[in-house]
Design brief:
This protein is of the alpha/beta class. The protein has five helices and seven strands; from the N terminus they run H-H-E-H-E-H-E-E-E-E-H-E. Strand 2, helix 4 and strand 3 form a beta-alpha-beta unit. The protein starts with a helix and ends in a 5-residue tail after the last strand.
């Protein structure tokens, strides 16, 4: 509890307990709970991959703070190498605009907006840039119809907030480089966890 040495001690006790070398100590029992939790996390990730047909070459991670936390992690860690096109046609897309323009202050950011209930002109998107967009507007219900507008051979990353699309719409993973969602929007679960899906282009 606290030091790396103690964590190593817990792990050693778990291994010894599993191999029958020692009687389980309190630390070992706590360690076994940790192992069980890790196994459950891997099981959830496996089910997500299977259910959503996510390619095996893509990495999936579960993070705190729901979809908002997940997309924030992507924006703050992936943007800045190249110019950005950020698309907004409802409240959450506008929130990502504020993050990129006012907080991150990414140079050469281009905001492409549409009025509430409408969608942006996708022909204006520059795929030499990183692209940030919501697949399905949570508050307006306006969504992109497909991924045909995302060009093959693009230079930038496609960063997609898909929280109101995943599990209800088929997503073209080959067109999406960094995708986020949380399962409460469509599945009705709690809003505690977010999920990040990263393509080999990101990794």
């Amino acid at each position: 509890k606290g030091s790396a040495a103690n964590h190593n001690y817990v792990i050693k006790n778990v291994i010894d307990g599993i191999k029958g070398r020692t009687s389980p100590t309190t630390n070992a029992l706590e360690g076994l709970k940790v192992v069980e939790i890790i196994e459950r996390i891997y099981k959830v990730i496996s089910l997500i991959r299977e259910t959503l047909n996510i390619p095996s070459s893509y990495q999936i991670g579960i993070v705190p703070a729901s979809d908002t936390g997940a997309i924030e992690m992507l924006l703050w860690n992936l943007l800045g190498e190249r110019p950005v096109d950020v698309l907004a046609w409802e409240s959450f897309g506008n929130d990502w605009v504020k993050d990129i323009v006012n907080q991150l202050k990414i140079e050469n950011t281009r905001v492409i907006k549409a009025e509430y209930g409408e969608i942006v002109d996708l022909n204006k998107v520059n795929f030499d840039n990183d692209i940030v967009f919501t697949w399905n507007g949570t508050t307006s219900g306006v969504c992109v119809q497909d991924a045909e507008w995302i060009k093959d051979g693009k230079k930038g990353l496609t960063i997609c907030d898909a929280t109101s699309a995943v599990f209800s719409m088929d997503l073209p993973w080959n067109k999406l480089d960094a995708t986020t969602f949380s399962w409460q929007k469509v599945l009705g679960g709690e809003a505690q966890h977010g999920v990040i899906v990263l393509s080999p282009n990101v990794l």
